[in-house]
Amino acid sequence: MNPKFLTTLAGLCLAASLSAAPLTLTVPAVSAAPTETFHMGTARAPDGQTLTLDARSLILNGKPWTPVMGEFHYSRYPENEWRGELLKMKAGGIDIVATYVFWIHHEEIEGQWEWSGDKNLRKFIETAGEVGLKAIVRCGPWCHGEVRSGGLPDWIVARGQTRTEDPAFIASTTKLYAQIAAQIKGLLWKDGGPVIGIQVDNEYGGPASYLLTLKKIGRAAGLDVPLYTRTGWPALSTPMPFGEIVPLYGVYAEGFWDRELTSMPGNYWAGFHFSKLRVDANIANEALGRRDAVDAPDVARYPYLTCEIGGGMMSSYHRRILVDPRDITSTTLVKLGSGSVSPGYYMYHGGTNPEGKLTTLMEEQATALTNWNDMPVKNYDFQTALGQYGQVRPQFFSLRPLHLFLHSFGDKLAAMDTVLPDRRPAGKDDTTTLRWAARSDGRSGFVFVNNYERSRALPAKAGVQFALKLADGRPLTLPDVPVTVPADAHFFWPFNLDLGGGVTLRWATAQPVAIRTEGAVRTVYFAETPGIAARFCFGPEIDPPGPVLATSDAGQVYELLPGNVAAVALSKRDSTQTLRLAVLSAADAARFGLKTGPAAAPIAAAIEQLKSAGPLRTIAQGKIKEHVAAAPGEADFAAAAVWRIKLPVGLDLTADTLLRLNYTGDVARVYIGKKFITDDYYNGLPLEIGLRRHAADLKDGELTIAILPLQKNAPIFMAASAKPDFGSADSIAVLHSADLVPNTTVEIMDQP
């Protein structure tokens, strides 16, 4: 396709009229990563591949590696669906699958171990390796994960002294680690397998010696891996000797755990601001309390890795979080701009809690130990990229260009430090100062911009230009004319970026996505920044690709329209390699290289109300301190309104079809016959059920849904958009519709 250029004099004049003082930043020189001694396990695989780390990044085969990690709990998903879901994760740009091993899922009754079916850790890890994913196993013994007692079996809890170096607890944990080691024997990196890391415990704030003891017993059991990790929050009560266990960090846009019934309590706003702090003090506030975000003194000696960027959020009974996909793309971009070299999501894939033999297995306030919140009995969808039934959510697509960028440019990013601008927002209520930062090696880099924050309107910023003083003293201003950064925009732009073939891109107002090389042709794909024209500046070393719009202090400026093919070919003088540029629309960038299933109109299922709601229950307060509302129990559902849902005759239950239930109420439970299959705390979204999974139980084509009324004055937090109009009523419980829609499919067609 011939290049398309925009030459709008009026637009240039308008931009000039909005001119203001450029935003300034001084880029210092970057020193080499210090030589450190990390006390990890075997780094070399049988085929000669190596995996190590330095202060800047993970190092794969001697080259900086910036992998993307996504959490997926095998014991919360059917074994026969693992392969397809892991392939979806790979299609989304995931490199590493992380998974908790919930002790209570495997030894609910002391001495009775279960590792088969949906609890077959070995098969899950084997399957991950077969589809090309690496794995990190989060061993516990305490995991949290919204599981009963954080995953500790009741018989362990009853003995007390949990998460300590008590000999009896360590002896039991040693048996757990031996079981895990037996499950993944032969699947470790040193064996040629996919397991590259082990996490010990989770969100632990006691003495470092406890975590070191867990590492020791793990290694003694045979868990010899290149990475031993822990969550970098909260602060330990005694220092961790350097290099023994690598801290990983996180950020959530908003949490279900807070005790307040208001939007964005505490310091969640900080997750939308660029900062050199790695610790996020908002995670687990219910257990850890409000606290200052303080990094450990040796934090800069470790690479900035994350394991818990919120890929979505569950709803607890008292806090019904409604996720906006921009929450996730924005916080991820801020983490990258703040220095992270490996985004890791919790969760990336949702699931369903398994059946317990003695109890339900979800976190609930009535349980004795560390159960701060009432969670759904079955549903662990997490509103994340891939849902409880494998639904493909908007953030799956919107995150993917970031992941592709790391695959193509991550080695460059790893060498770059974060530099904060001369003028930064004064605090959480400063909405007029643009939030931005740079990552740079002293000469080249990326400018990161975030003009989005959950539950807060950030206005458009007019007259924006960035004036960088590079390490050699040379100035660089981009773009050549001021632009308006739209409200809610979040993006990054390159400067002095080596595109290969001896060509340097001086700057661009488009976001790099991926590189594809075919023979002598190298194509670099960019994503447009919605609302801002895609302008590219090159120096005189290339043949002009088209009309020059302007000349800046860095070179000549061209403007390209988005399109699906290479928009312009650049050939450096005396070069035999051809470099092509392609600008993708935001929508096309999100689906770059993917094939998705076709959309189809919903088909209505018949609904019939069988029973009206009975008397309203009295909403009790939970037993944990800072009491919050307690969820209804089993007996309360005797007063629920009930509907029958009749599926169309002849419906193909082998197809991947979702039953989408649009309802308003407090808590919903869905049954097939007497079998309880899933539940939901209403937050304004429909409840979806994948029918293929339940095909064997749907012989008569019927389900029922029981809905407890949402009470007008219930002490729960809910998004304003989700709150119904009660009118003169004091409660509401209604099933509006039941629709059948195909589940979205994704397939990698052409991976760069």
Comma- or semicolon-separated keywords:
752 residues; alpha/beta; TIM Barrel; Jelly Rolls; 3 domains; eight-stranded antiparallel β-sheet; 11 helices; 43 strands; globular; disordered N terminus
What does this molecule look like?
The structure is a single chain. 15% of the residues lie in helices and 29% in strands. It is an alpha/beta fold and 752 residues long. The chain has three domains: 9-27 and 423-592, beta-galactosidase, domain 2 (3-layer Sandwich); 51-411, Glycosidases (TIM Barrel); 603-747, Jelly Rolls, CATH 2.60.120. A hairpin with a 7-residue loop joins β28 (568-570) and β29 (578-584). The radius of gyration is 27 Å and the shape is globular.
CATH architectural arrangement of the largest domain: Alpha-Beta Barrel
Q: How are strands sequenced across the largest beta sheet?
A: 5-6-7-8-9-10-11-13
Query: What's the CATH class label of the largest domain?
Result: Alpha Beta
Average pLDDT over all residues: 94
CATH superfamily of the largest domain: Glycosidases
- Structural class based on helices, strands and sheet pairing: alpha/beta
Strand content: 25-35%
Q: Note the main sheet.
A: 8 strands, parallel, barrel
Beta strand count = 43
Low-confidence stretches: 1-18
At the fold tier of CATH, the topology name of the largest domain is TIM Barrel
Q: Please state the overall shape, judged from the principal axes of the Cα atoms.
A: globular
Rg from alpha-carbon coordinates:
27 Å
Distance between the termini: 21 Å
**Helical stretch tally:** 11
